[in-house]
Amino acid sequence: MNRKTLVLPAVIGLLAPVLAACGGPDGGSGDGDAIVVGTTDRFTASKAAPAPLDPAFAYDVGTWNILRQTVQTLMVQPRGEGEPVPEAAEKCGFTDTGNERYACTLRDGLTFASGDPVTAADVKYSIDRARSLKTDSGVSGLLSTIDTIETQGEREVIFHLKTADATFPFKLSTPVAGIVDPDDYAKDKLREGFEVDGSGPYTVQTEVEGDELVKAVFTKNPGYKGTLTVNNDKVELVSFEDADAMGTALKQGDIDLMTRAMTPEQVRELSNASDDTVDLVEMPGLEIRYLAFNTNAPEVEDKAVRQAMAQVINRSELISRVYGSQAEPLYSLVPATITGHSNSFFNTYGDPSADKARSLLERADVSIPVKLTLHYTTDHYGSATELEFEELKRQLNDSGLFDVSIEGTPWKTFRPAEQKGEYAVYGMGWFPDFPDADNFLAPFLDADNFLSSPYVNSEIRNTLIPESRREADRLSAAESVTKMQDIVADDVPVLPLWQGKQYVAARDDITGTAYALNSTSTLQLWELGRGVSG
């Protein structure tokens, strides 16, 4: 294949004929040679997070990408996007007109990798366990609409919901709803460390140094039953300290493929390189970046301060200086490609203006300049994060309205501090649990939200979120979704900045790379195979 960047549209399934020259996903050799995948995701067990891979706790894209290979869910998002389809289940669906009763039938003969049968009781145990543990990661919020779970026989599971929730099938495709063996996962405590067991397409062995997982070796599960086709026998996922080390490993042939997070410089270099042994694949992504606020913190308690920041920050300039063509300005929590998106922040604030921001502060009698520290994580979203925060600092300080400093902290310290409310302003990213507007709003605005945010808007929580979830036709939810975005733009509990694309770079004998990531950044290792280079 020529050394060109492949740009994949949202409906990725349409590309199969175009990619035939590379070897399609059916071309996996299954010859036993491990495909080695690099990532800069870091997996750390700590006092604050002793069980990073327990489905009842895990809630970031890196840990979920380990669980999705190993712990099976009732539903799964299909290769070509769209509505979720049965996975551990043979069939699932709402059995009432109000979207409040959801029933699934398990596949016949389904077993855990150990050989033990998977039963309806195991499904109930697994999901009830995550709900009752209610860990501080916030992941149990995805299960908040469940009232009770009923089983009938060995294979029937019935979910009775508190309120209508048309997004519930999507939630059953996320790892928090993963099916675990009660023999391996205690009901009343998390499974500490890095062991993972399930009924998914792979089993996994982890290599640990100190308190960090440095390599996960995925081996094809011969007893797997589900909708996925596994095109390889073994994949090794190697965690690198930074993108430069990962890129060097790809050049030297130590790894076959690298994924998140590549630096903007690496993407530009690979796009323009004449070397035809490595292919760069660009695909749509739903990753967003934003500033979050502890709305109880004295520095930003007055929403005029948050509004002024929204009025000053120039997203286009931020992107051009740091990310180039790899990101787009974002004017709402809901990305532009999701049904219900509205440019609420642009509609409210228009173009950046220091004069308008000054008026906001003066009307609220806020002393100028406003002194703030912007916090960011040094090792979770890629090396460009520091440059991004340098640019945000420059823009805010150049307005004459702010006196901003920035502070970077490793994720294992940053995340607990953010949850405890120690930061007034901090930068976060979001890789959606599923591609629906609800998952860009409820995790930030509902009770028990992902950020542990003190911000409360009763109309959003009590009316608009439930109202939007009643609509099975997601277009019909647009009015409620738009109103939520408009409220966020006025109150600014979060300040969306940009929406990113995603990339995979692979040696040219690796097949299935077009499907290695879906739009929610799910790593689909089963799609990879080894073909013929050249």
Automatic annotation (TrEMBL):
GO terms for biological process: peptide transport. Residues 1-20 form the signal peptide. InterPro entries: Peptide/Ni-bd, SBP_5, SBP_5_dom. One of its GO terms (cellular component) is periplasmic space. Keywords: Signal, Transport. GO terms for molecular function: peptide transmembrane transporter activity. Pfam families: SBP_bac_5 (PF00496). It is found in: Cell envelope. Belongs to the bacterial solute-binding protein 5 family. This is Peptide-binding protein. The gene is sle_54620.
